[in-house]
Amino acid sequence: MGKTVEIEDSLVKEVMEATGATSEREAIERILAAYVAQHRTPRARKNMFDLVGEVRLRDDYDCKAMRAGDAAD
User: Fold this and answer.
1) What is the chain's pLDDT, residue by residue, as a tens digit (73 residues)?
2) How many other C-beta atoms lie within 10 A of the C-beta of residue 12?
């Protein structure tokens, strides 16, 4: 699907250098794909605070002992 868009030459050049793209089309496609991936991920992944109450640790869990290598299995 073809699109005609006016973009500053300096911006396209900077994107090409940053992405290593060899053509303007490739540079724009890479940037758009990265943008979509970056903004899609947070919605798909649960926020750490959403897990409060859903994760239960063992009663004998001791992170300090585990770091020291003295944890009970």
Assistant:
1) 888 999 999 999 999 999 999 999 999 999 999 988 877 765 556 677 777 777 777 888 888 888 887 555 5
2) 15
